[in-house]
Write a structure and sequence with these properties.
317 residues; single chain; 5 strands
Length: 317
């Protein structure tokens, strides 16, 4: 019974924290996005993803680092008391939240597996000297896309290879390699796990920022930017926007036409000026704040456990 009560408390605390923080993120993420507007697309994408994952990370850390230890250390094991209705309802909601997130992730993996297997069965290895395998495919497939999380592969359709000039193709391939290096497919899987109502716009903003971040990583000169812009225009003519994108893949073009137009305009206006505002002491401040937080928690850990235990008593009784 003690273990059941402990699990119920952990799930209850988790769902309370996760739900509250997720609602807060829904309300404030646009302001966070605006604060990151002066920074590079890479920094904006990282910031938006961090904000999106903050409820899960924070709720998990507090649950496993404070709530569960406080129960195990301070709750009497000899007491045999019934579980309150509030605790049971919250625990069930927490369990369902984790179960639904796990199911969403598994469904996404299954949905991605079938088309990727079809592409692979019709593909042959292309002569590409990059670190990521490039497979050419004649069958119907996205013109250029990266699939896979642990072993990513790039798929290039014959149609895309035909319409793209050599320099345009190289720029497009560098764009996809940037997605691999940033582990964007893994991040998409994590977003499936933390699905929450009202987060669609935030996730769309992250997706847009990560595409622009990959664009930036693919070009280092105005000529390369123009090559990538031309590749976007040509590949966009091969894409069927009405078709649902394959789960957990990053394609060169898969967003709405308006987003593609914005990327093309941004590349045409590309300049070698720094894309980020000098950070100065910002990183040192962040490091100092993190160390101060860790030190503060370490020094007051026992007191925190007692306060957390007192706060969770009403859930148990």
């Amino acid at each position: 019974m003690f273990a059941v009560r402990g699990g119920a408390v952990a799930f209850s605390v988790f769902v309370l924290l996760y739900g509250t923080l997720s609602v807060a993120v829904c309300g404030v993420w646009r302001g966070v996005r605006a604060l990151g507007g002066e920074h590079s697309a890479k920094r904006r994408a990282s910031l938006l993803f961090a904000v999106r994952m903050a409820p899960l990370v924070t709720a998990t850390a507090i649950t496993l680092g404070l709530a569960l230890p406080s129960f195990l250390l301070l709750e009497p094991r000899a007491i045999d008391e019934p579980l309150s209705g509030t605790l049971l309802v919250l625990a069930l909601c927490g369990f369902l939240l984790v179960a639904v997130g796990t199911a969403n992730s598994l469904i996404a993996l299954i949905q991605a597996a079938k088309p990727i297997a079809t592409w692979t069965s019709h593909a042959h290895l292309d002569a590409y000297d990059g670190s990521i395998p490039l497979l050419r495919i004649a069958a119907a497939a996205p013109p250029l896309t990266v699939a896979g999380i642990l072993r990513p592969r790039m798929f290039l359709s014959d149609a895309a290879a035909f319409v793209l000039a050599p320099k345009e193709l190289q720029s497009a391939l560098r764009h996809e390699v940037a997605h691999v290096r940033r582990r964007d497919n893994l991040k998409k899987l994590l977003l499936r796990f933390v699905a929450f109502p009202g987060m669609v716009e935030l996730e769309a903003a992250w997706n847009e920022a990560t595409e622009m971040a990959a664009d930036d990583a693919a070009v280092s000169s105005a000529n390369e930017a123009l090559d990538l812009a031309a590749a976007l225009v040509k590949v966009s003519r091969l894409v069927c926007y009405n078709a649902a994108p394959v789960a957990l893949t990053t394609a060169l073009v898969h967003s709405p036409a308006e987003s593609v137009n914005a990327r093309v305009e941004r590349l045409i206006a590309w300049s070698e000026a720094p894309k980020t505002v000098p950070q100065g002491l910002a990183r040192w401040y962040a490091l100092a704040a993190t160390l101060a937080l860790v030190a503060g928690i370490s020094l007051t850990y026992t007191e925190l456990l007692m306060q957390i235990h007192a706060a969770t008593e009403w859930l148990v009784r």
